[in-house]
Design brief:
Largest sheet of chain A: none
Order of helices and strands of chain A: HHHHHHHHHHHH
CATH architecture of the largest domain in chain B: 3-Layer(aba) Sandwich
Oligomer: heterodimer
CATH topology of the largest domain in chain A: Fumarate Reductase Iron-sulfur Protein, Chain B, domain 2
Number of strands of chain B: 10
Radius of gyration of chain B: 19 Å
CATH topology of the largest domain in chain B: Rossmann fold
Number of helices of chain B: 16
Strand content of chain A: under 5%
Largest interface: A-B, 76 and 81 residues
Strand order of the largest sheet of chain B: 2-1-3-4
Number of strands of chain A: 0
Helix content of chain A: 55-70%
Structural class of chain B: alpha/beta
Helix content of chain B: 40-55%
Number of domains of chain A: 2
Mean pLDDT of chain B: 97
Distance between the termini of chain B: 35 Å
Shape of chain B: globular
Mean pLDDT of chain A: 94
CATH architecture of the largest domain in chain A: Orthogonal Bundle
Chain lengths: 195, 311
């Protein structure tokens, strides 16, 4: 009885990943033969305890402990694993789906909390921005030339013959309406509340 | 090699090019103008969402619906050869078209979102555009014009040693569509060769990531810099310039190199340029009014001083 139950649930984590919109239908997760080419080329494996081969094994075993392993948050999303995989698997993509699953159930929201401003900026202006929550960290690393560059940017862009990039008026309203209809604005509010 | 367009190009704006290295866009426009490539920049185009998508913030449907709007702008303005300045835009747009064309459920949901947003006229029908035939990276356009570029070189770069950093999201997400291999990336090397530089054949970590890792740079700085360090240390003394094709990589190396040099106790001395910036410089473009070297952290002036006009 126990075994049967286990078998049934064994199906689910792999199925959930295969059914996720981010995964292409030909994702070779079930074909993984644990060769370790992913891990041997992974920058996060080189510099931390993250192990993509091990992560995929846990997913295949439907071992839900994989969701509690803090190391999965070290993946760089560089897809080096995918480009080396002989069976068209993508640990990078699996990792994205696992993290999404964790966030959607309210886990580890503090990890994305500081990026929420990126979302709000996008909703208003339709462009990607570096969240201001990190600006001081960047100034500490890059020095005082960095805030000066940000100050001078409009002049530099004019000199280079480049136009305004923030969306305004109707275009900005269209983006805002799309993100409301897609549920993104609501998702931001939810993340903000939990954080 | 796949067919690379030279007209009806929508030059797709990039968030990090906009605010970190705007000279990449102006250099590309300079090159396209001088090489007879017809293009436009659409004022209403929104960003691809890539940074947010890989910060684990943007969901796939939101990214898809915004992509569908940008695809509408491309169709409406009859500039359907979408060409990106950034490797992440390239892969995000390829994935979006792939999903919109092959996944009926996703397409219906996106169209419902557009309708709810009052944008029914922007609805996407299967195969209006193709992931393979409508999404390009500027490097591909430049590569297809490499012979023309080599005939227009006005500056002597023959003493400058150049190494290349091929962006992961160009080579590794859709390797079968890229015009170089992810295991032996040579696209930038061949283009640099046309500009008359001395190309570094191979170096350790050539295929490795820049280390930005999207959220890692901010949330996990030490881990991020460990990967950046691998590559920069491997290049010490081997090259004068590291060539880029993605603003996120360029930012990681150009802005953080002084941090790593401080830790190392000596200069690594690499200058970071996008391939479009190098080609524009070689063709005689103004360093400040076209190439935009004033936004770089590692000064490019030393290099400018070394390159003389070809007699």
């Amino acid at each position: 009885m126990m075994e049967k139950k286990h078998k049934k649930s064994q199906h689910s984590l792999v199925r959930e990943i295969k059914d996720n919109l981010r995964a292409s239908p030909d994702l070779g997760i079930k074909r993984c033969m644990q060769c370790g080419l992913c891990t041997s080329n992974c920058p996060a494996a080189r510099h931390s305890d993250y192990d993509p081969r091990e992560m995929v094994k846990k997913v295949l075993d439907n071992n839900l402990e994989v969701l509690d392993n803090p190391d999965i948050w070290n993946c760089f999303y560089c897809y080096t694993c995918a480009s080396n995989c002989p069976v068209n698997n993508s640990p990078s993509l699996i990792n994205q789906i696992l993290r999404e699953k964790i966030l959607n159930t309210g886990g580890n929201v503090s990890r994305v909390a500081e990026f929420i401003e990126f979302g709000y900026n996008y909703v208003e202006k339709g462009v990607g921005t570096i969240p201001s929550t990190f600006f001081q960290d960047l100034v500490d690393d890059f020095g005082e030339d960095y805030p000066k560059l940000k100050h001078d940017l409009p002049d530099i862009r004019r000199k280079l013959g480049l136009k305004e990039y923030n969306l305004k008026g109707e275009a900005a309203a269209e983006v805002k309406n799309i993100l409301k209809a897609s549920g993104f604005t609501q998702r931001l509010e939810k993340l903000k509340k939990i954080a | 090699m796949k067919n690379i367009p030279h007209e009806n190009i929508l030059l797709f704006k990039s968030c990090l090019v906009n605010v970190e290295y705007p000279g990449v866009e102006s250099s590309t426009r300079y090159l396209f103008d001088h090489l007879g490539v017809e293009y436009q920049v659409h004022p209403d185009q929104s960003c691809c969402t890539g940074l947010g998508y890989y910060y684990d913030l943007f969901d796939q449907y939101s990214t898809l619906a915004l992509a569908a709007r940008n695809f509408y702008l491309a169709r409406e303005s009859e500039h359907t050869n979408i060409t990106t300045l950034c490797a992440t835009c390239y892969a995000i747009l390829k994935k979006s078209l792939h999903l919109l064309n092959s996944n009926e459920k996703a397409r219906s949901k996106v169209n419902e979102i557009l309708e709810e947003a009052g944008l029914s006229h922007m609805k996407y029908e299967a195969n209006m555009l193709s992931s393979e035939e409508n999404i390009f990276h500027i490097v591909e356009v430049l590569y297809s014009k490499r012979e023309q570029i080599s005939q227009k070189i006005k500056k002597d770069f023959s003493k400058i040693k150049v190494a290349s950093h091929h962006a992961c999201h160009y080579c590794k997400i859709y390797p079968e569509q890229s015009i170089t291999s992810s295991r032996n990336p040579m696209l930038l090397d061949e283009l640099a060769d046309c500009c008359g530089v001395k190309v570094v054949d191979w170096y350790d970590f050539k295929k490795a990531t820049c280390g930005a890792g999207f959220s890692q740079r901010f949330a996990n700085r030490d881990l991020s810099l460990s990967a950046t360090r691998d590559k920069l240390y491997a290049l010490e003394g081997k090259a004068d310039v590291l060539l880029h094709m993605c603003p996120n990589c360029q930012m990681q190396f150009d802005r953080y190199q002084p941090v790593l040099e401080k830790e190392l106790g000596r200069k690594i001395g690499l200058i970071h340029l996008n391939i479009a910036q190098l080609a524009a410089l070689a063709m005689g473009a103004d360093p400040y009014e076209v190439v935009g070297i004033q936004t770089h952290t590692i000064p490019v002036e030393d290099l400018i001083d070394k390159i003389k006009d070809i007699e």
